[in-house]
Amino acid sequence: MLVSYYLSVWLHIICAAFWIGGMLVLPLVMIPAIKNNPEKRQVMMVTGLKFRFYGYIVFALLLITGITNMYFRGIHFSWEFFTTARYGRLVVLKVILFVVMMLAALIHDLFLGKKAADKMDEHDRIQIRKVARWTGRVLLLVSFAMVYIGVVIARGG
Fold first, then answer.
1. Interatomic CA distance for residues 105 and 120, integer angstroms
2. How many Å apart are CA 69 and CA 54, to the nearest integer?
3. Long-range contacts of 53-58 (CB under 8 A, 24+ apart)
């Protein structure tokens, strides 16, 4: 295999680790650490915006390296491959999950973000926080499923 293939796989794994690691650090480490901080909301907003910026870069890199990895493995993109081969069906499932993850991230970032929360009363903010938490959980579960499918694909499907 080419060095560029290994670099592409390496970058794909690093990006997945960054994405999942960030999603775990926020609720498991950061939120408990700033629980009693009077600036908790501001710290979370700044952290969330910073993670969002890098998260979308990581999404783009995951898409590019995923396609590149398939190219280096000699996968020929055809309707037959994606519908009949087990490997192809797993790739289709991973792409569907990627789209779900992107949509959930956009909903989480754009509709549940600071602008929406600032314009609502306290009751609405509580509802938005609940939806935001569940959106984050869905993102994490979909990400775990994608990693599992990636392992299955890498091990021969």
1. 21
2. 22
3. 54/18, 54/22, 55/19, 55/22, 55/105, 56/105, 58/15, 58/18, 58/19
* Residue-wise pLDDT tens digits, 94-149: 999 999 988 888 887 777 765 555 655 566 667 777 777 788 888 899 999 999 99
What is the total residue count of the chain? 157
Amino acid at 118: D
Max CA distance (Å), the chain: 58
Report field, pTM of the whole predicted structure over 0.85: no
SS3 66: helix
Torsion angle of alpha carbons 64, 70, 74, 80, nearest 10°? Answer: -120
